[in-house]
């Protein structure tokens, strides 16, 4: 079946611009995650949704970062007033929620953001 | 704070050589453990996972990993690598505490297999 999709795949922004990154999770997956991966690093957690509820946003680096999932499916990660340090690949993952917490996250291709 | 350490950043092997990539984590409670692989130009894919039970887990493409709780380790192994195993390998850990579901990642290991 279809996997996690993300758009755009590449985004170039001038410093100070706002950007919006979209994630379409696997159909039926109730959990959705956003990660940030800087060059040469492992992914770092940003935020997590269960359906439309944002249950963990402890990884968002500043109040310029905002994520939403209003209908419990598609999610948007918004970055306001982009800075050069925001340049990274932004990964989205989804999983089917399991009560015993033994769920697997499936990743999309990522959006590579370059801030000039 | 929880952390994941991958000991080798770059590994170069010849085909048919054996592979072992180290992964250690810092968390004293129950964990879910994962190895993901990223082939050139592709997205992260699950290689194998450990949730509970037999600490020796087998994944795709002949990979396996062993969870040693006393050593906080989850090392990845393959007895004979192929050129097609050239990729970036990431170890990730989820601490099973409360509603925590985030993955903590290592820095990754870049594996190059020479034909």
Helix count of chain A equals: 0
Which chains share the greatest interface? A-B, 26 and 26 residues
Q: What's the overall geometry of chain B? A: globular
**Regions with little confidence, pLDDT below 50 for 5+ residues of chain B:** none
Radius of gyration of chain B: 14 Å
Portion of residues within helices of chain B:
under 10%
Pattern of helices and strands of chain B: EEEEEEEEEEEE
Structural class of chain B: mainly beta
Mean pLDDT of chain B: 94
Determine the N-to-C terminus distance of chain A.
Answer: 37 Å
Strand % of chain A is over 45%
Number of helices of chain B: 0
Shape of chain A: globular
What fraction strand of chain B? over 45%
First-to-last CA distance of chain B: 41 Å
Number of strands of chain A: 11
Largest sheet of chain B: 6 strands, mixed
Biggest β-sheet description of chain A = 7 strands, mixed
- Unreliable stretches of chain A (pLDDT < 50, length at least 5) are none
Kindly report the average pLDDT value of chain A.
94
Explain the overall architecture.
The complex is a heterodimer of chains A (116) and B (115). Chain A is mostly beta strands and 116 residues long. Helix content of chain A is 0%, strand content 47%. The radius of gyration of chain A is 14 Å and the shape is globular. The model of chain A has no long low-confidence stretch (mean pLDDT 94). Chain B has strands at residues 3-6, 10-14, 19-21, 23-26, 31-38, 45-50, 56-58, 64-68, 73-78, 87-95, 104-105, 109-114. In chain B, a hairpin with an 8-residue loop joins β10 (87-95) and β11 (104-105). Chain B is built from no helices and twelve strands. The relative contact order of chain B is 0.33. The mean pLDDT of chain B is 94. By secondary structure, chain B is mainly β. In chain B, the strands form three sheets. In chain B, strands 2, 5, 6, 10, 11 and 12 form a six-stranded mixed beta sheet that branches. In chain B, strands 3-9-8-7 form a four-stranded antiparallel beta sheet, with no helix packed on it. The termini of chain B are far apart. Classes of the chains: A mainly beta (116), B mainly beta (115). At the A-B interface, β4, β5 and β10 of A face β5, β6, β10 and β11 of B.
């Amino acid at each position: 079946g279809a996997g996690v999709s993300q758009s755009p795949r590449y985004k170039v922004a001038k410093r100070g611009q706002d950007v919006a990154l979209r994630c379409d999770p696997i159909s039926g997956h109730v959990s959705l995650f956003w990660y940030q991966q800087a060059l040469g690093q492992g992914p770092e957690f940003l935020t997590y949704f269960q359906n439309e509820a944002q249950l963990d946003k402890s990884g968002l680096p500043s109040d310029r970062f905002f994520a939403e999932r209003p209908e419990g499916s598609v999610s948007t990660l918004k970055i306001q007033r982009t800075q050069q340090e925001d340049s990274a690949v932004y990964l989205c993952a989804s999983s089917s929620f399991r009560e015993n917490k033994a769920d697997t996250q499936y990743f999309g291709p990522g959006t590579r953001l370059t801030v000039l | 704070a929880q952390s994941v350490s991958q000991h080798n950043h770059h590994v170069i092997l010849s085909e048919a050589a054996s592979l072992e990539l180290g992964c250690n984590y810092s968390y004293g409670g129950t964990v879910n453990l994962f190895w993901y692989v990223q082939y050139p130009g592709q997205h992260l894919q699950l290689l194998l996972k450990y949730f509970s039970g037999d600490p020796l887990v087998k994944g795709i493409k002949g990979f396996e990993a062993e969870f040693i709780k006393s050593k906080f380790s989850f090392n990845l192994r393959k007895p004979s690598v192929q050129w097609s195993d050239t990729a970036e390998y990431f170890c990730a850990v989820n601490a099973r505490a409360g509603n925590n579901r985030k993955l903590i990642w290592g820095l990754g290991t870049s594996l190059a297999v020479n034909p």
